[in-house]
Amino acid sequence: MKLLVTGGAGFIGSNFIKYWFNKYPKDYIVNLDKLTYAGHPSSLKDIVGKKNYNFVKGDICDEKLVDKIMGGIDAVVNFAAESHVDRSIIDPDIFVKTNIVGTTVLCRQAVKHHVKRFHHVSTDEVFGTLKLTTSDKFSENSHYDPRSPYSVSKAAADFVVRMYLHTFGLPITITNTSNNYGPYQDPEKLIPRLITNAMDNQPLPVYGDGKNVRDWIHVDDHCSAIDIVLRKGQPGETYLVGVNCEKYNIDIVKTILKIMDKPESLISYVPDRPGHDRRYALDSSKIRRQLGWRSTHDFDIWLTKTVEWYQQNKWWWRPLKARAESIYKK
């Protein structure tokens, strides 16, 4: 199989490429990435040089480039996206361009080149927020209610992909997943920011009261879910991917400090960000029931392993740290 992976130098994309080559070493992957703040070639240093891997630096909004590299592709896995809520509040325009216009370009060229499967990676944030006082979870039938520039752009991209199914016959699948964690995640994101700040004995900022809830999944479990959707998922279907791992943000902070043997005096409560969704939770029974997907990464064990990875790989995150922190000073 020949895959086009967009955004393959980012956190989830780079982990997916390594996952795929480990499981399907004879497949060919073209990695298209613009190498913005979220794309790091260092995440794929062990892949560079493989005869069945080709990195292309470029923008998914570049129609001519996408047309050129789409030829002969069997499946597209679209990770490419602007994905940081805080950044979307500061500069919404780039989120519209990349997440909506870019996805449209990819779909149009996938139709032109008769791609057999277009898989679009999306987020639980398109569904809005849930109340802390309920046990409700989002499902594939939940209505869309995005509340940030980021989630609005991702919701629009989901609808673009579905439109290309209904209007142009593009065989698409979509996964909406919960918050990912694991190695090679940019230190501007919550868990790696907490870990790296703690390593430097810097304050660990917590928005509001710290009681916002996120549903956490290890990146390798996410990759295995995409794998099974590509192989067994039905064209036109959406699958929610989560592992029933809801955690208060403040509990994540305290757990990381405990793992690292750091004092809770490092916790620093800061004003909440605008439109901060209170709770996300996903019902992933469909992908489990219909496709037989199972998660294999226990949160407590793999959060500890993630802490250890950052402790052992300063060479990767240290050059990114100053830029990552700068976004929070705007």
From TrEMBL:
SUPFAM superfamilies hit by this protein: NAD(P)-binding Rossmann-fold domains
Statement: the UniProt record of this protein carries the keyword NAD: yes
Domain NAD(P)-binding: 4-302
Reactions catalysed, as given in the entry: dTDP-alpha-D-glucose = dTDP-4-dehydro-6-deoxy-alpha-D-glucose + H2O
Cofactor: NAD(+)
Top-level taxon of origin: Bacteria
Keywords from the UniProt entry: Lyase, NAD
GO biological process, one term: nucleotide-sugar metabolic process
Pfam families: GDP_Man_Dehyd (PF16363)
Any one Gene Ontology molecular-function term assigned to this protein's record: dTDP-glucose 4,6-dehydratase activity
Top-level EC class as recorded in UniProt: lyase
EC number from the UniProt entry: 4.2.1.46
Family membership noted in the UniProt record: Belongs to the NAD(P)-dependent epimerase/dehydratase family. dTDP-glucose dehydratase subfamily.
Protein name as annotated: dTDP-glucose 4,6-dehydratase
